Amino acid sequence: QVQLVESGGGLVQRGGSLRLSCAASGSIFAINALGWYRQAPGKQRELVAAITSDGRTNYADSVKGRFTISRDNAKNTVYLQMNSLKPEDTAVYYCAARHRATMVYEYWGQGAQVTVSS
How far is it between the farthest Cα atoms of the chain? Predict the structure, then answer.
């Protein structure tokens, strides 16, 4: 099992910045990627950004150039730096871990609310 604990989030004005953190514990060896998903009211959950064990990253088109995902392997922590936030970024953000055997994001954090006011 892998446990994911998120922190950060909150309320920010348009154009502002926030940083989310996610600390992983447990069977870390079983995962090969960490990602951030988000879900806005009435919408499907979508992948925002992900980073693999060897540092490769990918981003949703809607956040490219504004969000940056990074990881601190020593702390087993992944971060999502969000800049130039827009009201449409408002959502609950979830940290997720991908199992190396199934290549499926099987482990999830509790979620962090991000609200961007206009």
Answer: 43
